[in-house]
Amino acid sequence: MRFFLATLACLGLCPLADEIWARGPSMETLEPPIGTRVHAFQVVVRGSQLDRVREVVFYRPGLKCESISVQSPEEIMLSIAADRNCALDSIPFRLRSDDGLSELKTITVSPFALAKEHEQEGPQQVVCNSTVVGTLEKDQVDVYLVSVHRGERFSGEVHGVRLGMGLLDTKLLVKSPSGARILVADDSPLLNQDPCFSIVAEESGLYRVEITAVGGNADADSYYALHLGDFPRPQGVYPLGGKAGQSIEIDLFQEHRAEPKIERIKIETATHAIGTQPIEIEVQGVACPSRIPWRISGFQNATDVSMPVDAPVAFHGEMRGEDGEGRHIFRVAKSGRYAVEVYASRMGSLLDSLLSIEDPHGRTIVRGDDLETHDSKVELMAEPGKEYAIRICDKRGNTGNLFHYRIEVTECGPSAVAFLPRRDKLSQYRQTIEVPAGNRVLGLLGVQRDRVVDPLDLEIRWDPSLPGLAYERGTDDRPGFLQPVVFQAHADCQPAVSLVDISLRRRGARDEERLGGFRQIVDLVAGPADSLFQQATVDQLAIAVINECPFRIELEEPTVAVPIDGGLGIRIHIERQTGFRSPLEVTLSALPEWMEGPASVTISPDESHAILRLRALPKASEMEWPIVAEARASVGREKQPSFSMRAAESTPAVSPLDYPVVCSSLRELKIAKTPCRGTPVDLVVEQGTERSITIALELDRNVPIPLTAVLEGLPNRVESGPVTLQSSQREVVFQLQIAPDAPVGEFRDLVCRLSSEIDGQPVDYWVARGSRLTIAARGAANVDASGRRLSPLEVLRKKSAKEE
To answer: Cα–Cα distance between 500 and 798 in angstroms, integer?
Structure first.
């Protein structure tokens, strides 16, 4: 993804330094950021523009907002109910007002009733199987007591960083009723920065659990949720996956020690979900507070490691034995490229894998180490009738049943995924689509392809709750991963929101041949050194119709192509509502490679149009490329009046900077070969002289006449005026005036620019690129009588003649 961010920066798509969140609501804190599926709960939201919130939009089923109580523009209370079967997970959500969507936050769902941290000094006793919600400041220590009988399981788990509110790194200290220190729990492989533990009580009484912040950077908004009870809290499970629709027995590694106790339970896998799908662990009717990552596939797990198995297949194992190595054998039914991928570290295993594939003769074909995590992945060309051996080990030679793994062997196939590229890693700027009624906005969708080179059909499906909303996109026949999509809302559209699905297929393919859909990774908690500690992943795009915007922009369809090594001026038109007097900043987004344009053009309040000049560099390629212009309100030197989006008493006036960025229709820009060519010249002149320079031209029939020629790249104190060319001319002659103090040297950047106009569009052609001008001191020019540059041999002869 860093490559995509760098690409966005090169295309000029990163937000401006003074960019602020749109006029929609904004959330800063949630109190508490966790609820329960036992009964309804309340969440206090603090931020800005909250008094106009009309709806809470959840990305996943299970939660429903029953009421919104406005306390002030900076605070509201949400009453939320959870279904009994609501997933124990962090549920992403946004707030919607008629003016826009908020950034994304998450509400975590607990299986237990909530208890609030009291403000009294001393330990706080809580009942078994409850979730305590509190905050930590600096080196504060919160202490809780739980009554546990001898022989009973006692578990604890923290939601800290995973609440998505901040980088609260915590640790737990557990003491027995007699005061003996039992354990200290810090980071967990399954829970990242959040700790957990699970023990069997060796004595009855009140067990003491202390929670503190690591690093001392906690503040009053550093919320945690501490789950305490007799629930199962495995450090891992085995196997790490199974076939969809089957009943599978799995082992839970329960104890908080190097060789944990193994407890076996049975689970039912989903029949429709494929991929990494978290599962809920429940023992004797009590659920673990967090679901466990698990792989669901359409193929079987291999059970007999001594025999070769046909791919696709999943192997499971642990680092056991003296050699600390796992070995599996597979074969394929047809030749092709196959992927061998390890699932371990990202599934909570301690394994840092090294992977190698051997052919039937024991020769290593390919090796693999880390991919995006500590897990390995390799690809190979496999042939039927041959057996291939997989060897896997831990990079540091560690062994044990917490060093377990799953290896999937599958045939490589095409896939594609669409997403909104992150324009700013530290904010969620433009991570949704917000379309003002009667206007348009641009969505730059990134499309990441794997083994897909054909053009793609991109289909966006939304429900009927957004009538009058449409979209248009350019062709997918061009290079690059950015796909511009223009969303347009009819003027009669009422504010609403929809979470929409996106399908990607090869052009003309059927629905069942879908290659992929939408997948957005939203950063929630960032750390130092560009690290990311918590994120939310959603598979639907949030599209909202919002209140109207007081300006519109349109881009004229170019009637001629941009010539390679040439330029074209494209006309922009602005419509303003009466009373809107802010200047507008206009940009062209996502130009193709080797195309240049202005960073922005400012249109003053008294102007209704402008010209954006594009230039195709000599390395540009012939192509057709969709372009779109965007306009945003800016503030000039004079104080700008506020303007209401809608003429309603309940709508407050807003600053020009609060308005959304709107766009024009998509237009097709053609880049073609230049119809003008010129022969480069090589001229030598002396200081304090006047000389003419003649450039021979070759002009096609479609070149507009007359042309104005200008010689560019001249050094300081060398002047030449413009020249007008008529239809009969096939050369252009410039008169040079070289000042007596003009710089001496060789200047290789001379180029002739020919300018004209077609259908009101300024057009430029640069010809004779590579022309050279050499300025010599008076009487020192090595030229003949006609001004031709002498060769080195001729210079020697001239020098010898002078000496004689």
So the answer is: 80
